[in-house]
Design brief:
By secondary structure, this protein is mostly helical. The protein has one domain. The protein is built from 3 helices and no strands. Helix 1 packs antiparallel against helix 2 and helix 2 packs antiparallel against helix 3. The chain is flat and about 50 Å long.
Length: 90
């Protein structure tokens, strides 16, 4: 079962790397914000998988909840900032 979780964690790490490409090379600011949201979501799942791998799920769930809140608030703040700035051009 651990090999399954390890494989899923590695697949998520690869998907996060692909999302990082969208953050760095996105044609618009909103594409970059979407990429950041994808990385945040995948990080939440990756943290829970790491909890399963280390048999300490309860600690990682607490860390995941805190990270999820910080990630969501950060995304909303950045979106609001760029919306007011009017940065929708490439």
């Amino acid at each position: 079962m651990n090999t399954y979780f390890l494989g899923a964690a590695l697949a998520l790490a690869v998907a996060m790397t692909l999302s990082l490409y969208r953050v760095l090379r996105g044609p618009t600011t909103f594409d970059r914000l979407t990429g950041l949201g994808l990385i945040g979501t995948k990080t939440i799942v990756l943290l829970v998988l790491l909890g399963f791998l280390t048999d300490r799920v309860e600690i990682f769930v607490d860390i995941t909840l805190a990270y999820g809140l910080i990630s969501f608030i950060g995304s909303v703040v950045l979106a609001k900032y760029f919306e007011q700035k009017g940065a929708d051009e490439p």
